[in-house]
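Batch manifest, entry 17 of 40.
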Amino acid sequence: MRGTLARWARAEWGPLYAAVRGPLRRRGPAALPLTGAAVGLTALLQYVQNQPWGYPLVQDLGAVRADDALGPALLRTPLSLFVPAPDLPVWGALAQILLVFGIAELCLGRWRTLTLAYAATLAGTLYARLGVLLGAHAPFGLPWTDAQVVDTGPSAAVVGLAVYVGWRYGAYATAGAVTVAMVAEVLLKENLAGKEHLAALTVVGLLCLLAALRDRHPPRPDRVPSAWPGGGPGLPAGRP
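Output type: structure tokens
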């Protein structure tokens, strides 16, 4: 039994472990500049928003609501990723960023990690606007009260990154478990955050599909392959 579990763990997480271990051994914490900056920025914003003088500032710069005008909402969305949700403990957001952003940065590189994180967050933000427009009685709709909910935090980005990295490195059971957990969240407690997570997963799923199609039809040898969305550090380009 123990040997079977060990073999399963090696098959599930072996490639991912190798991709993470290599850069960390070579460079140490210097291999994680994006993750370090994200953790520091999140902690700073948490401190500032808990000060009487800082709360309005953080709201103006990084709080997104579905009834906001689209232009200001899009400008606030990048920073909203690092503003901890006011109703959740900040240590949870910091732990999510440190673990998932750290693994993604080591495996995919900082720019791909940041792009995926933003895409997942933006998907949730735009879905909220569409969901409120559809209304509570539509299959994918939201009640009008959700238009006033402050929509911040890294959770959508974390979910998207976890699934993409798991798929890219063959940890399919892990990626599937994250997906099932998000679906269960919506079924058990139907709220804005849960549905935004599903929107983020939808966008990440499309990116996985595009990567799979690109790997099935590799570029001609006389052309330079695109850097997106292929392999990152520790993963040869074109390997799923």
